[in-house]
Amino acid sequence: MNEIQVTKVGIVSCSGEEIPDGTLCRIACRKVLDALRPGETVTICLPLFIAGGEEERSFAAKYPTITVDGCEKLCTAKATEMLSGKPGKSLLVPEILKRHGLPAPTKLRHFGLEEEPAVKAVAEEITKAVDEVLAEA
Fold first, then answer.
1. Which residues of 19-41 are buried (b: 16+ CB within 10 A; e: fewer)?
2. 72-85 CB burial, b ≥16 within 10 A, e <16
3. In angstroms, how far is the first alpha carbon of the chain from the final one?
4. Beta strands in 1-137 (DSSP E)
5. 9: which DSSP letter?
6. What is the DSSP code (8-state) at residue 101?
7. What is the pLDDT of residue 16?
8. Side-by-side strand order, sheet with 89-92
9. Residues 6+ apart with CB under 8 A from 122
């Protein structure tokens, strides 16, 4: 039987636009996708995934996922587990910020230099999770 070598990880980001940590999730995920692990990661659009997007669900059924939630509601992790199975890793932004001794962002949009340490910390944790998931696959 041929085994598929896992070379990509799906990142499912919080889509909570009403909270600053949701914005932080999306910015940090884009940084990983575009700069830190391009070619090894793809984004899975949570609203489309929930609505029945075939490409998102097909990818998540074949490849591991990492969820990044902006709050303790864990919408991303719960939806991903329900629709495609347990994520390879689940990250929670408030916990990441606490571990790094960083304050939560207060802006909903237009992040700048003030928010850069938080973006960097979350992006680094996502990158670490990608590396761990690929190593385990």
1. bbbbbbbbbbbebbbeebbeebb
2. eebbbbebbeebbe
3. 17
4. 9-13, 41-44, 65-69, 89-92
5. E
6. T
7. 86
8. 41-44, 9-13, 65-69, 89-92
9. 24, 25, 28, 68, 91, 93, 96, 97
pLDDT in tens, 35-61: 999 999 999 999 999 999 989 988 998
Question: Which residue bears the tokens 């329900």?
Answer: 82
Q: In the block, which residue shows the tokens 């938080």?
A: 118
- CA Rg, the chain, in Å? 14
Q: How far apart are CA 130 and CA 137, in angstroms?
A: 11
Closest CA to 130 of 36, 25, 13: 36
For residue 110, the number of C-alpha atoms closer than 13 Å in the C-beta half-sphere is 0
What are the tokens at 25?
Answer: 């999730």
Name the amino acid, one letter, at 50. Answer: I
Supply 7's token pair.
């070379």
